[in-house]
Amino acid sequence: MIKATPWLHPVLISLAVVALMFALFNFGNVKRRLIGRPLRTRELNQSHTKLVWGIALPILAADLYSSVAYGPEAGITELSKLGPSVKWMIIPITASTVLLLVILITSYIMGIIAYPTGGGAYAIAKDNFKGRWIALVAASALLIDYVLTVAVSVSSGIQTMASSYPVLVRHETSLSVLCVLIILFVNLRGVSESAKVFSAPTIFFMLSMLFVVGTGFVNEMHRGFVQQQTPPWGTVPQGLTLLLLLKAFSSACSSLTGIETISNAVPIFRESQAGAIKAYIALGIITGVTLLGFSYHLYVQGISVNPNNTMLSQLLLVYFGHGVIYQVIIWATLLVLILAANSTFTGFPQLSALVAGDGFLPRALVVRGDRLGYSNGMIVLAALSILLIEVFSAQTNALIPLYSIGVFLAFTIAQLGLTRRWMRVKGRGWKTKAIINSFGATVTAIVSIVVAVTKFTGGAWIVLVILPILVFLATRIRTHYNNVADALRMDIKHSPPLEHRVISVVLVSSVHEIVRQTVSFALSTTNDVVALYIGFDEESIKRMEEKWEQWGSPCRLITVKSEYRSLLTPLSRFIKKLENYEGGKPDHIQLLIGQFIPKRWWHQILHNQSSLLIRTWMLQHRDVVVTTLPFHLPK
Amino acid sequence: MIKATPWLHPVLISLAVVALMFALFNFGNVKRRLIGRPLRTRELNQSHTKLVWGIALPILAADLYSSVAYGPEAGITELSKLGPSVKWMIIPITASTVLLLVILITSYIMGIIAYPTGGGAYAIAKDNFKGRWIALVAASALLIDYVLTVAVSVSSGIQTMASSYPVLVRHETSLSVLCVLIILFVNLRGVSESAKVFSAPTIFFMLSMLFVVGTGFVNEMHRGFVQQQTPPWGTVPQGLTLLLLLKAFSSACSSLTGIETISNAVPIFRESQAGAIKAYIALGIITGVTLLGFSYHLYVQGISVNPNNTMLSQLLLVYFGHGVIYQVIIWATLLVLILAANSTFTGFPQLSALVAGDGFLPRALVVRGDRLGYSNGMIVLAALSILLIEVFSAQTNALIPLYSIGVFLAFTIAQLGLTRRWMRVKGRGWKTKAIINSFGATVTAIVSIVVAVTKFTGGAWIVLVILPILVFLATRIRTHYNNVADALRMDIKHSPPLEHRVISVVLVSSVHEIVRQTVSFALSTTNDVVALYIGFDEESIKRMEEKWEQWGSPCRLITVKSEYRSLLTPLSRFIKKLENYEGGKPDHIQLLIGQFIPKRWWHQILHNQSSLLIRTWMLQHRDVVVTTLPFHLPK
User: For B177-190, what is the mean pLDDT?
Assistant: First the structure.
């Protein structure tokens, strides 16, 4: 159910967040307090901002591992209407997911071997395909998926909490937004700091799940591997179609999103390549064991699908009852779901910086913040996911089907790229590697198609619409940057600076100290100076002309009457006239504006902001050099 | 019940409204469409933007007249717990309100006679009291009251609609905000246009109420002036205390807010003075007749107070049953309640322009917009009332007690001022006039005290806290303007412009066309030119120095290494050094920034906005002349 949010709130809030972050990020002490002291560029490669693989693993794995709790359930749910005779199929479905997991991890390790400095699907595709669009498809798919991960993980975490604590129900959206902001701030502080905060709960959750799996085996050791409640094995239920089976498989595969995080983040490992490979192997083993053990115990205990009680919760009740252990594990699950969003705050900025570095995204994404993270990327990720959360009022069931298609598309592209690489570069054991990757490509391509087909109407079509748009925009951005570079390029040996003819226009509103300063400046720098007075009635114009004469007419005064009380229109008209000046068109028209700077910033609202207005207008519309002379009140 | 709105929404929305209005008001075609073509200043005094009194009356009267429907009820409600024997007292209470109305209107007509160009309590107090603070108290009290009027009228209108149409309940806040925005837009189009839209419903409501009163008399003519259900007359109920009686009276007086609107708006009458006096007399008669007739019929029909059904609604049911007439009148009541807010959009901007003209409020409030109304005042009124609506989620019961104290305070000050004036100026029949006004002053002073005492705990204290703060701020603003004027004043005969020494600093990021243009400009206008390059590492600095030499070093290049990847800090440090330059401190340091202007505005996000940043930073922090050279992409 989508809550009725007035349409302007989400947009407003996202804009405000971006504006706030931007302001915070460029000014002030608040930033220092929140983000910490700035780091020197050379600290980037010092070890204390890098992580040993044992710490990096839980941070990067939260996204993948948080889904083990619901992956098998998502798969078997698709079949549950066929009756209890289908229960045994949770094992083959989960096993096929684990098989896919093994294939993916092997392929990704190949990727890290090929590209030791890291880089996931985008870098691989860029290096191995001529058409840039293939790499862009991979990048766009992953970026979309990152945003979805944040929105879906955070809001589903908050939603589950709210169903335990009904008092939160009306505040789900605000809480989710708050949650994203907290994750953002911790990440803006820098990778190693966020690690300290975020790795512990994930490790705890991993241990909890392994403990549950272990408890299951102990239970089965004591009470038998086939218990009273264990359903029969191997009967093919009536009504089982291939499509249904594929649907179940593709739903179970949603637990595999997040694998690519490690391969994109190789540089944050203190041991780089080797650390990432170790992390992948460890992650594969833990995830595989958890998935298989968990689904096996679900089968042995004959757990059924129940929309109001997750299978994990049911299994915990069988083993531990409604006690402390149950509560602790359920809470850890929720926490990890929220932390899954955090791993994305490493992946998204890294990838977008990579793509932006190639000129396909705004360059601001390449700039490292004070704490050496790609802060702008983090802010964009937070803003987009907050927008999603607000638009869907943190009710994100509708977003889940959009979720896995992007990843599998990127997987396929990466595998294909690696295959091409092995065939080109060769090297030790290249044939095996090529076979591994081409097999991986085939499998993930099939999965992509299965997901796209079975989830098309459920929302996958949205991704298939947005993807080409993003790719198109990216190529347009690159073209723009190329055009600009062409326009700015010059022959350094034969383009000396030239003597330019400048006409200065001083805007005057009366004769007082600011005008005196501005006219002095103009006369000291340019030969052609004109003072311009825009009056709203004849009387004030006459008064100004008299004053100017009294002052001794230091330069020519031109007066213009503005019947509509507007400054901008008569000013524009005047500048247009100057462009066809007697002595030929000047190279530059300089507009000089004396600006009164009050002692306290809030005094600004007591003064007309015409200078700001004129500047904005001029920059937008004309080729005029705008000079602002500040005038401070004497103390 | 106050809805749980996340705290940031109200503030955000109000900020957004102000920003939007400001943007709309200064740029673009949207404005033309919404607001209409700009009007020439000389059109101000042309008759087509002024109103004949018959049209001005309903517009200015909506605030006062809309309250006749609930005034008598508000009074008798305070006594209703004393039992049915109190019912007859609705007549003396209402009669005393009408008496007060007559006194107030007579006094206000005296005010218009004394000040034919208009001006309510503020103008009168300013002219007759030496201490400016008295006038400021009157003005602040009225301004507060105007904002409250908008918030209370609009939200109570919407609230009543929502109780008829429950589907609206969850959207009360958004609807109220929308409502204020619509009123704002219509008013931004100009006075005469808004008249056409808003006078008809008020006239219709007036006619409806007179029709109800007339129907009552016809009914009584046929069925007797004392009917079966008529309660006994004249028994003093047990438990009636003076305080209770005063409370009833002060509650009934809440129907008198809005009287001052006409006297503040004399200039909008085509017949000026005479028109305003006619309007006052007509309004007094209509309101008095309605109040007396209405309360008399309530007594005859023995209507009781019922929190779920207004007395007006009950009386209508007695006369007309649940038919079309009932529906139409109820709807007209709601509509007029919302339109009451509209009259405030004439009063608030006029008053704030008056006060701002004296230097007690930001000067922007004096500027007439394109359509000759005080647009900034309207925008401020809309923003403040939207803030109130959002903070209280359009549940404004809490605001009603704050409501009438301001008005009666302003009344008292105005009467006192007029009394002093008659005693000073004298003139024909001045004694009678002075007696009328001093009597008026005494009465309204007593009412002020009664209201302040009986409603103190109910919220009147908030007004008594805010008032002195506003007055204090106003005097600070005036002091600021005086200081600025002093600082800017100069001896026009003996302060010619002087020759200034200017050092130009050109910020360079590489050697390309923009740099060439900027350096050319700098060399053509100033003698001392320095190019400044801020690099993030040794390597880029070395590359830049080489390029600069290749280019022929047209001026001195200074390179600075920024270890923290910040531009602003090294720039500030450099400028501080320049201020202690070899050749003595220059008069001006000019910072030249070449700014790339993309062809399409949204291309801006593809380029670093460092120039904007530097400009803002410099304006905020240093005495540096900032010059922006635009560089457009060649077509």
Answer: 82
